[in-house]
């Protein structure tokens, strides 16, 4: 009997899951968008003021990171931004062009080293695998801080007293999970100075008003959102899982760093993001809000829109500036 491979689940344009467990992430959407998911090779020389390097965190580890080092002469030690990429826990990589384009710019403008983790992807590696990878990267930075391991760019230039977590979309969920896990640990001599969830995928099983009324975008449709989470969350979980629905959690007693929650006015999940913001304030946590007006989910990753649409370009400038100011003030 010949085994016939067939698709059992898919997210249009992004991903197909087959009955033998194989996952195909070949881009099948409009070809003009493909370049944004193309990998950018690392370059140790400075291009537009930033050099990049890929490395394994430990000799016996499969955990990799991409490091962005800005060319800032005589500036002393630089803050470190630990980045977790988005993609609904199921797609994307740290070396994709959309992240390269954004985080080289942030490294330059914030005057900071960016460390971006290559996270394991679902459904082959369901949550909490990506969260474990993210937290392991933070512990690796702690090892660098106390000299247990050496990495020239970070050991020589990084200020381990000013480490910030940042994440896009589902990476924003990971920011909060890592910040919570770190709250109960002694990370000395590393200090977690801030957390920046950008358009995090916070939602409930019951659809919010914004999910029902806001427009879908190239970076987020309801079908994409719900299918990725079904494939990414632990088996048997609903969208009310704490990773996607932290709004009802007890936050009192958690020693969380200051937060900068970045939201977009036209994001499908802005209502539940704002619910999280209000819960943080009620719990007495330090949380600032940065709102991008008249624009949708993860707009700043869309190079085509940034180049062609003045509104997207201006809101991207404001977002990068706001994040840079938050880092500069902490």
TrEMBL record:
Q: Coiled-coil segments, which residues? A: none
Pinpoint the Alpha/beta hydrolase fold-3 domain residues.
81-300
Stored InterPro entries: AB_hydrolase_3 (IPR013094), AB_hydrolase_fold (IPR029058), Carboxylest/Gibb_receptor (IPR050466)
Q: Which SUPFAM superfamilies match?
A: alpha/beta-Hydrolases (SSF53474)
Signal peptide residues on this chain, from the entry's feature table: none
The molecular function GO annotations come to: hydrolase activity
Q: Which domain of life is it from?
A: Eukaryota
Family, similarity comment: Belongs to the 'GDXG' lipolytic enzyme family.
Name this protein carries in UniProt: Alpha/beta hydrolase fold-3 domain-containing protein
What's the source species for this entry?
Lactuca saligna
């Amino acid at each position: 009997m010949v085994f016939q491979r067939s698709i059992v689940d898919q997210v249009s344009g992004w991903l197909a899951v087959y009955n033998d467990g194989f996952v195909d992430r070949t881009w099948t959407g409009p070809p003009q968008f493909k370049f944004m998911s193309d990998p950018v090779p690392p370059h140790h020389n400075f291009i537009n003021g930033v050099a990049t390097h890929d490395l394994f965190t430990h000799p016996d580890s499969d955990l990799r990171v991409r490091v962005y080092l800005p060319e800032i002469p005589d500036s002393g030690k630089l803050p470190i931004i630990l980045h977790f990429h988005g993609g609904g826990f199921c797609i994307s990589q740290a070396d994709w062009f959309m992240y390269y384009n954004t985080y080289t710019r942030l490294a330059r403008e914030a005057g900071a080293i960016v460390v971006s983790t290559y996270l394991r992807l679902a459904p082959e590696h369901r949550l909490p695998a990506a969260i474990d990878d993210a937290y392991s990267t933070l512990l690796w930075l702690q090892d660098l801080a106390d000299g247990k391991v050496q990495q020239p760019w970070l050991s020589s230039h990084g200020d381990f007293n000013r480490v910030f977590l940042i994440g896009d979309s589902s990476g924003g969920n990971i920011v909060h999970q890592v910040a919570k896990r770190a709250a109960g640990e002694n990370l000395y001599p590393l200090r977690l100075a801030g957390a920046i969830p950008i358009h995090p995928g916070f939602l409930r099983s019951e659809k919010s008003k914004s999910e029902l009324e806001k427009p879908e975008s190239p970076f987020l449709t309801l079908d994409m959102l719900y299918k990725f989470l079904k494939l990414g969350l632990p088996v048997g979980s609903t969208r009310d899982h704490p990773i996607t629905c932290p709004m009802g959690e007890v936050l009192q007693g958690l020693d969380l760093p200051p937060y900068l929650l970045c939201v977009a006015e036209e994001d499908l999940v802005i209502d539940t993001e704002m619910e999280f913001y209000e819960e943080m304030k009620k719990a007495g946590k330090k949380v600032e809000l940065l709102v991008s007006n008249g624009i949708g989910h993860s707009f700043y990753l869309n190079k085509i829109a940034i180049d062609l649409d003045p509104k997207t370009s201006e809101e991207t400038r404001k977002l990068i500036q706001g994040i840079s100011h938050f880092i500069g003030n902490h």
